[in-house]
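quick one: iron/sulfur cluster bound model?
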Amino acid sequence: MEPFFNLTLNELEHILGVCGKEKFRARQLFKWIYNKFVLDFELMTDIPKSLRKIFKEMFSFTFLNLESMERSKDGSTKFAFRTHDGYTVESVLMPEEDRTTLCVSTQIGCKMGCRFCVTGKIGFIRNLTTDEIVSQMMSVKKLTDTTITNVVFMGMGEPMDNVENVIKAIQIFGSPYGLNLSKRKITVSTSGLIDTLKTIPQNLCVIAISLNAADDEKRTYLMPINRIYPLETIVDFARSYRPDKRSRITFEYVIIGDINDSGKDAEKLADLLSGVKCKINIIPYNESKHISFKTPSDEKILNFQRILLKRGYTATIRKSKGQDVSAACGLLGSRYLEV
Ligand code: SAH
Ligand code: SF4
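yep, here:
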């Protein structure tokens, strides 16, 4: 049996073609499954009965097993799912006034070893399959019956280190016959694996790069990957990134107490990004008992933002979500460090 959530529309069309079936059946299946969320082939009334029977034997739906579901005071929910081989994958659902965002994981652990990140501390265990990435979305939909309007690839793992599966999942989320999420509603966050970023179509999704420091020494200390892709390489990429007139690259800046939160750091960041069309998203550091870094004071964070705004940048402070259930940025995977 073929896991349905592993297949893009093109792949499904190909498989059906090989089996001698009409291509348009693929679009029908996508509509029933991703758009209408009907997973019982018997109910797919515009497909002939004999074919429904064949599809039932051909395809399976892998829903991840729910291990726990923790609701935060702020309304976000962290889901922990168990994979077939006994690992835990976490996803976070964040309802807001005008949207509902799902944060998905792309790997179990991560190779990048960023000093401030819980997932980085775990080390790398394995990539998630396309099926497991798409299944996070489908499992959350099944459990909550929510309409998810936005997806962010900001959970556990480095998306550009599992790029094939991430691209396939984006194509599935974006298919007009399926969930139909526009490219503006899908964001991939990366620590800056520029050579891989260059290989993905510029109009696939919104790109966010975790900068976190404005000089190489500090960035290498926080993010060892900076040795391979230093700031100059990242900024050069950002300058050349112009999928269309409206799109801008986002830079994420995790602001950490006494590490990268001074006025001087903000000025350096403004100098570094001079002339680059971008948005800056300041993320107050989420503390964890496994790492000794601290969240800066509100005053420091606001001062950092003020300097960037004064220098003409669009700079927002990301509201932290789900801190009380370890669902906030960088806290996913805490359970691996507790055993
Ligand atoms: N690997 C990708 C995506 C997952 S991390 C990346 O690094 O971009 C998602 C975001 O969480 C990144 O911007 C990362 O810098 C940030 N982050 C990691 N640990 C954090 C913490 N403890 N508090 C706040 N943000 C954190
Ligand atoms: Fe990996 Fe991103 Fe965490 Fe760095 S911040 S260790 S790249 S998940």
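The chain has a mean pLDDT of 94.
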